[in-house]
Design goal:
The chain is mainly α. Helix content is about 45%, strand content about 10%. Strands 1-2 form a two-stranded parallel ribbon. The two termini are about 15 Å apart.
Amino acid sequence: MENKFSSNAAKKFWTSQEEYPPYGDVIKKRRLHEAKYLTEYVWSNPDCKTMTEFGCGNGATINILQELTNIKEYNCYDISFELLSTINTDG
């Protein structure tokens, strides 16, 4: 059985996000909350040297963590319309 990657579902999702409300203060507060939680976790676990983030978006949270922690390796994954448009689905 041959599997082919289809980007149609993700394209549909990202197209629908055009109607999503602008980021504003809600996203800023969420990022601050995430950064606080993650830095406290990393600082309390000195052996934590690797972090993986799914849904990293533009990397804003990782940028904050790079400045505030000693994590050596980041693995960031996201599915965006721009990323999917570069995938060759012809085989």
